[in-house]
Amino acid sequence: MSSWTMQCATLLEPLVDCLRKSIFSSKHIHGDDTTVKVLVPGNGKTKIGRIWTYVRDGRPYGDTTPPAACYFYSPDRKGERPKDHLKDFKGIFHADAYGGYNQIYGENITEAACWAHTRRKFYEITVASDNAKIAYETLIQIGKIYQIEEDINGSEPEERLKVRQEKSTKLVEDLFASFKDALTKLPKKSATTKAINYAMNNHIALMRFLDDGKIEIDNNAGERAMRSLAIGRKNWLFAGSDNGGKTAAIIYSLVETAKLNKVNPNLYLAQVLSVIQDYSSTKLAELLPWNLKIPEFIRSG
Questions:
Q1: What residues does each domain of the chain span?
Q2: Is the CA virtual torsion 83, 87, 91, 93 positive or negative?
């Protein structure tokens, strides 16, 4: 990244800190991470760093709090990274089953596991084999659960909870009962056994959405927040340094949050950069995408 971009990131970092605090003050957030190539100084080779995202998006349960996403860069994927990121967060954390998250769960943070990841394990089996009866049946059952979720998307938490308890609970309980039965018949090293064990190991966290209308069935909000980064990697290929990775995280935080709030990110950043240098540090929240008083032409459809 250019020195100009890094200078902009330096100016924007306090605003992104404000954004992060806003997100972590929520009670329900999503998290995900992905790889990014980073140039190693001096030898022209690249190493693998990580970009982490944390997302607040209550629109599926009718929350009017503005959606937001923030990003962090780290040179590795150690569990201490999300532990540090989430040190001030208390609530439900939607994520995949990455082992590094295990140390954050406890008194303050509760895990909500991802049914999309679980479904993917069985889908991959059906792609590889035409004779995957258990995997096919599992996909059908998970599809029924997702259909219920589609029907209640956008409803109030109380309504979502009511419908889930009336319609989804038995489907989920029957599915896990079928898993237990299948494990008594399948070879221990089969692909289907591995997929079932993945679900069983996350049983409690996968059931959690049935008892809280604000919990999502999956972590798709977190995965969506990574799409722009995945596309971007094809263009810029790698970060020039660890500082470049940090700069990318700062810029992406504001760009993606602007997009979530239907604000043109380029024009938004231009306006923020024109005023932030002389802006009071106690009023930075006024410059967040959902607060900034901006001309209508900056808003996107």
A1: 3-112+221-298, 115-214
A2: negative
